[in-house]
Design a protein that fits this description.
There is one protein chain. With 261 residues, the protein is α+β, with helices and mostly antiparallel strands. The protein has one domain: Porin (Beta Barrel), CATH 2.40.160. The chain is built from 5 helices and 8 strands; from the N terminus they run αβαβαβαβαββββ. Strands 1-2-3-4-5-6-7-8 form an 8-stranded antiparallel barrel. About 3% of the residues have low confidence.
């Protein structure tokens, strides 16, 4: 069943490309790389040290489907919208920071000794809206084209949770918060690889570098439909501060090359 779901999702994600690939659509290929800030169950909520230290790297390969040279869609759509197909990979190392790790108590020392990591492979697409006419931007070297994009992704994650004190799962190494069963798991931590879904919101701008290439500055918020992506998910019925699923923000720069025009 899992294999069938994956195949169906890949077909769904590839549908926009396959449907229009022979219809005169212009394609733009690019790469975008930058830093992600993982908002997870590691560390203190809204703590600057937590947010700045639990950061990783992401690289994305993108294919833009440009409709501005076709005549089978509405003129407004053609001059303002593109479909952005994306494949990306990221890895983030995670650790607890904040006031709960700074006390001279056994639970604080257990939190401070915990280490985690999550690797993500993402596949999806977004509908991207350009605030300026696409043709006007393409004809003007040195111009900017701000945009906003929204879309779904399927994500394959591998999460690990360890401790410098020893193997997690006993009272000597593990904070009591993570020894309680949670969401079908025997503990509030897990070492696992699974598939989840996410919603992605991007804002950014392109800069027209040459007639056939652009630079891009991209900011992203990505929200997952799971709280296990980081490997931690303390029982929400007992620990009510665990309110949100995992999510991340991304800031990156990239280069886009036009294949045809």
């Amino acid at each position: 069943m899992t294999k069938l779901k994956i195949i169906a999702l890949l077909l769904l994600i590839g549908l926009p490309f396959n449907s229009f690939s022979q219809a005169g659509i212009s394609h733009e290929l690019g790469v975008i790389a930058g830093r992600i800030e993982f908002r997870s169950d590691y560390g203190q909520r809204n703590d600057t040290q937590t947010n700045l230290n639990n950061m990783g790297l992401q690289i994305a390969f993108v294919d833009y489907m440009n409709f501005s040279y076709t005549d089978f869609v509405n003129d407004y759509f053609a001059e303002h919208f593109k479909i952005r197909n994306e494949f990306s990979y990221s890895k983030t190392n995670l650790q607890h920071y904040g006031k709960w790790t700074e006390k001279n108590t056994i639970p604080s020392k257990q939190l401070k000794a915990m280490r985690g990591s999550t690797q993500l492979v993402n596949l999806g697409f977004q509908l991207e809206y350009s605030f300026v006419h696409i043709h006007d931007f393409e004809r003007t070297i040195g111009s900017f084209a701000p945009y906003i994009a929204l879309g779904p992704q399927v994500n394959f994650y591998t999460a690990t949770a360890t401790s410098e004190l020893g193997e997690l799962g006993n009272t000597n190494t593990t904070h009591p918060k993570y020894l309680v069963p949670s969401d079908g798991h025997p503990y509030g931590f897990s070492n696992e690889s699974k598939m989840v879904f996410s919603g992605v919101l991007n804002i950014g701008t392109r800069y027209k570098l040459t007639p056939m290439s652009d630079l891009v500055f991209d900011i992203r918020a990505q929200y997952f439909n799971s709280d296990w992506v980081d490997g931690l998910n303390p029982n929400r019925e007992l620990f009510t501060e665990n309110k949100n699923n995992d999510w991340l923000t991304f800031i990156g720069f990239g280069y886009i090359l036009y294949l045809n025009n």
